[in-house]
Write a structure and sequence with these properties.
Elements lengths: L4 H11 L5 E6 L2 E6 L2 E6 L5 E4 L5 H4 L5 E6 L2 E9 L1 H4 L2 H15 L20 H5 L13
Helix pairs in contact: 1-4
């Protein structure tokens, strides 16, 4: 199931004033990164994931339309899943995005990930001692 493009447009409008916002397709949906830190995700399974921090996790789960974020059978503390009903209104979506932005603002910005560059193979010792190609050997043959 693909993520809801209408919700993506609404989230983009809410994040328009933020600096360093990037979108990445990951975890079966569309993830919004702020300062290279995951803020929220529109899930391909419906609903949204919000980063609220481990301190607020239990408190946020008491809110309506929320459930824990589970990945491979493990609860991800610091993230909550909010059903479509919780973000259906503009006020509801704005409230959750603001909570996620408030938490992300407390995390130091991460530098962009460097792409792995292929390393050149170190010259082998055997090659270093071998005679250069194209030159005839001098001396007796052994």
């Amino acid at each position: 199931m693909a993520y809801d493009e209408g919700t993506a447009v609404r989230v983009r409008k809410l994040l328009a004033g933020q600096r360093h916002v990037a979108e990445k397709k990951m975890m079966g949906g569309l993830c919004f990164m702020v300062d290279n830190v995951m803020c929220c995700t529109i899930s391909g399974r419906g609903g949204m994931l919000f980063r609220v921090g481990p301190e607020a996790h239990a408190r946020m789960l008491k809110e309506p339309h929320t459930s824990p974020m589970e990945m491979r059978g493990r609860i991800m503390t610091g993230f909550v899943r909010v059903s479509d009903e919780g973000t259906r209104t503009d006020a509801g979506l704005k409230s959750w995005v603001k909570r996620a932005l408030d938490y992300v603002a407390t995390i130091p910005a991460k530098p962009p990930a460097k792409r792995a560059t292929p390393r050149k193979a170190a010259p082998s010792k055997a090659r270093a001692k071998a005679a250069p190609r194209g030159r005839a050997r001098t001396g007796p043959r052994r």
